[in-house]
Design brief:
The complex is a heterodimer. Chain A has 14 helices and eleven strands. Chain A has an eleven-stranded mixed β-sheet with strand order 1-3-2-4-6-5-10-11-9-7-8, sandwiched between helices. In chain A, helix 3 links the parallel strand 2 and strand 3. The termini of chain A are close together. In chain B, about 30% of the residues lie in helices and about 5% in strands. Chain B contains two helices and two strands, in the order H-H-E-E. Chain B has a two-stranded antiparallel ribbon. Classes of the chains: A alpha/beta, B mainly alpha. At the A-B interface, helix 8, helix 9, helix 10, helix 11 and helix 12 of A face helix 1 and helix 2 of B.
């Protein structure tokens, strides 16, 4: 990914970002750090000219966007919420710090649903990000800005976070690659918490190799996050052969389970057709495809929403108007009034609804019926994935049940929006990794074909295998990829 | 308990939405979970270990105080409690 002429590239991408920051554009970013990125790019240019290139990090000159739920020292971090409109963190998230050390160029902070609660980026308190493939549609969420920035050619890669599908679903809606790592693979330190037992930080990029290069940098134990893993980190880019070096059947011996519950009712015809075609292509590459059922998977969505809202009600208690963020006591200068008014005015409807539901699920008299029972269902789902992955090496299914929604179609109907997470939340409950990779379009004959991703899912800490399968697919499936017309003038990056 | 003020309009708008969602949660009641241990965290053999609770001084105190909305000198100011 190393860039030889970072300033030239950074300028080109920043111009693209600025163009799309205007009201008529995609609007991927909440904050663009124009001056800083030009200065850093010029510095790297200078170091290369001075013959000091060998001291540069593996992401030198690579222009990246960071989801606004990740803290960036000295750069405003809002989590998409008015509550943090003026918050500038005094520290970097561990993943961001590692990217800086690798000499990435930080272009800015990508739009997202407030506190990562949403599936469309329409629940951002700043603006709606539009899908670069069709600006009347959403980019997905909650990492919608991160996916749209890559699809629109504004960044080479971005970071997102995935609590219940928030990397994979926007990757699918925008036709880019997204990796949801194993829980614990990447430190959560500095990620503004939504549901701590589910939150994962991961990369989005135009191609699998770029996403893998970013994962290399951000992975690894961090003493600031007790749940981060001490497992060895392989080089995720190793063995990723270009198309011309691949054998005729490069996936010979790989057993792929097609998850049956992900292919039937509730999944759009165009999505099923695209995933079917991807499966046939994988078979032609030598993989053995089996039909697999993940027991209890369909219970994942209600169990997920009980657990995520419960954890959110606890995590978001910190926004009380005292230590940072918005503070508004209203007319009554009392402590309770400060709490209630600050939270009542600073949090948006979706966030407040989730906190209220989570508070209910954790309250005395209901905790066993909701929270504990959802945790027991979580055990069943974890076991279900474990059993399915005993039979095969990886699992496959669509990353989202539909292509991108039109703007405004689900934002006022939360239950419908939650049910759309059915294909992604189970994996978060089990803590397992997945790679979402474009596999084609919902309807090739439409004037505006919309991209679709498959997700390749696997065992804990087996990202390297998922990345290899996704890379072979990407290198050989010409039918699966494209670039939206809206960014073709920016050139292929 | 959540310490959030809600308007009459919000109560009206959300009442049915939240009832529908909580009703949807109720499908979990039909699942046979007898003898199943609850899982608080994701899979992983080594995870869930607690680190020792050792206090350490944070060097960048000024930056933290910078974010405090109401302060007096180096103190965080809150409304009268008692």
């Amino acid at each position: 990914m190393f860039q030889r002429r970072p300033l030239q590239l950074a300028t080109r991408l920043l111009n693209a970002a600025q163009r799309h920051t205007r009201s008529a554009g995609v609007q991927s970013f909440i904050t663009v750090d124009d001056d800083q990125v030009r200065r850093s790019a010029a510095d790297i240019d200078e170091r290369i000219r001075a013959g000091d290139g060998s001291s540069l990090g593996p992401l030198a000159g690579v222009v990246m966007g960071i989801k606004d739920t990740l803290c960036t020292q000295g750069l405003r971090t809002t989590a998409g919420s008015r509550m943090l409109e003026n918050y500038t963190p005094p520290y970097d998230a561990t993943s961001v710090g590692r990217l800086r050390k690798a000499d990435m160029l930080l272009a800015g902070k990508c739009n997202c649903d407030a506190f990562a609660m949403g599936s469309t980026t329409e629940a951002s308190d700043y603006h709606v990000t539009r899908n670069p493939w069709d600006q009347n549609r959403v980019p997905g969420g909650s990492s919608g800005g991160s996916a749209a920035a890559v699809a629109a050619g504004q960044c080479i890669a971005t970071l997102g976070s995935d609590t219940g599908g928030s990397i994979r679903q926007p990757a699918s809606f925008c036709g880019v690659v997204g990796i949801k790592p194993t829980y614990g693979r990447v430190s959560r330190y500095g990620l503004i918490a939504y549901a701590s037992s589910l939150d994962c930080v991961g990369p989005l990029a135009r191609c699998v190799e770029d996403a893998a290069a970013v994962l290399n940098v951000i992975s690894g134990h961090d003493k600031a996050d007790a749940t981060s893993s001490t497992q060895d980190i392989p080089d995720f880019t190793q063995g990723l052969e270009p198309r011309e070096s691949l054998q005729s059947r490069p996936l010979q011996g790989v057993r792929i389970g097609v998850v049956q519950q992900m292919m039937g009712e509730g999944v759009a015809e165009g999505v099923t057709a695209a995933v079917d075609r991807a499966c046939r292509h994988l078979e032609s590459l030598g993989a053995e495809l089996l039909e697999v059922v993940v027991p209890s998977l369909e219970l994942g969505t209600p169990a997920y929403y009980v657990l995520a809202t419960s954890e959110a009600s606890s995590n978001l208690a910190r926004y009380d108007g005292i230590r940072y963020g918005l503070s508004s006591a209203g007319e009554k200068q009392e402590l309770k009034a400060l709490y209630r008014n600050t939270r009542g005015t600073g949090l948006n409807a979706e966030v407040k609804r989730r906190i209220l539901m989570g508070t209910h699920a954790l309250s005395a008299g209901f905790i066993d019926a909701y929270y504990k029972r959802a945790q027991q269902v979580r055990t069943l789902i974890r076991q279900g994935f474990h059993d399915a992955l005993q039979q095969v090496d990886v699992l496959i299914g669509p990353a989202a049940p539909t292509p991108a929604f039109e703007l405004g179609t689900v934002i006022n109907d939360p239950l419908t929006m939650y049910k759309n997470d059915v294909l992604t939340v189970g994996l978060n409950l089990a803590g397992l990794p997945a790679v979402a990779v474009p596999c084609g379009f919902d309807d090739k004959t439409a004037s505006n074909p919309l991209p679709v991703c498959v997700q390749i899912m696997g065992r804990a800490f087996d990202e390297a295998r998922l990345i290899k399968v996704a890379h072979v697919f990407e290198q050989t499936a010409d039918f699966a990829f494209g670039i939206p017309d809206s960014c073709s003038q920016n050139g292929r990056i | 308990m959540a310490e959030i003020s809600v308007t009459d309009q919000e109560v009206e708008d959300w009442q049915h939405q939240i009832e529908d969602i909580v009703g949807w949660f109720d499908q979990l009641q039909a699942v046979d979970v007898s003898g199943v241990e609850p899982a608080a965290i994701a899979d992983g053999k080594e995870q869930g270990s607690l680190r020792p609770d050792v206090p350490r001084a944070y060097e960048n105190r000024d930056a933290i105080m910078e974010s405090v909305p109401n302060k007096e000198r180096s103190y965080v100011k809150v409304p009268k409690i008692m």
